[in-house]
Design goal:
about 240 residues, disordered N terminus, 7 helices, rod-shaped, mainly alpha, about 80% helix
Length: about 240
């Protein structure tokens, strides 16, 4: 009997203590075990992350879109076209002028009348001088065009002579005195032609400068000149060629 009781006592203690030990791990591990000791399956704070993300994204996206677009487009589209179209569409409507408009309309016509009276007409002598100046400028322009053509032709001839001299120099036999003398003679002639071309070019530059100055003076004196028709007719009759007999 004593042996059987001693054998049963450990079994009874294990049977009685077994449910208490098995029920502890679920509550004890959650209460005592720190977060950094738990596994990913046991980590419960993942629910807190979802609850924090919802209130941040929703309220910020809604209030920013509504107040900006609606008032700006409506205020800018209305005030420009209707006011201008109504005033232009009914120009014949009877409207009383503002207090200052009637007084401003009358003196606005007076400067126009005085301006017409204050026009200074040129004399026959001035108009005659301008006509002769214009003729002189036309002659100068024609002469300049001819000099420019001559200068260009001279430059082309100089290029041909220079190319011929280079070809002659390549074929030159230094031991042949006749060839050397002929080459030197042509070189001297070419240098004289180049010197004359340079002098003609400098002269042409002075002619162009004089022509430009003369044209500027003509424009300043004659561009704004106003003459009467009677004075113009007198000058034009003087300039008319004599009839052939």
């Amino acid at each position: 009997m004593y042996r059987s009781l001693f054998v049963l006592l450990p079994l009874l203690t294990a049977f009685v203590a077994g449910p208490a030990v098995a029920a502890e791990p679920a509550a004890a591990k959650d209460a005592v075990t720190p977060l950094w000791h738990q596994t990913t399956k046991e980590a419960t704070p993942a629910q807190d992350v979802k609850t924090e993300a919802k209130p941040v994204a929703a309220p910020e996206a809604k209030p920013e879109v509504k107040p900006e677009t609606v008032p700006v487009s409506r205020q800018e589209a209305r005030p420009e076209t209707p006011s201008a179209s109504r005033q232009d569409a009914a120009p014949g409507d009877k409207q009383e002028p503002a207090p200052g408009t009637g007084q401003q309309a009358q003196p606005a016509q007076q400067p126009g009348k005085t301006a017409a009276k204050e026009i200074e007409y040129g004399t026959q002598e001035q108009y005659r001088a301008c006509m002769y100046s214009e003729d002189h400028i036309k002659d100068l322009r024609k002469m300049l065009e001819e000099h420019i053509i001559q200068n260009n032709e001279m430059m082309m001839e100089i290029k041909k002579q220079a190319a011929a001299l280079l070809d002659m120099q390549r074929k030159l036999v230094m031991s042949d005195d006749a060839q050397v003398e002929e080459f030197n003679r042509r070189t001297q002639e070419h240098n004289l032609v180049v010197k004359a071309a340079n002098e003609a070019t400098d002269k042409l530059k002075l002619e162009l400068e004089s022509f430009n100055n003369r044209s500027m003076d003509h424009n300043q004196n004659c561009a704004s000149l106003i003459v009467k028709m009677s004075d113009r007719d007198v000058v034009m009759k003087e300039r008319a060629p004599a009839p052939k007999q």
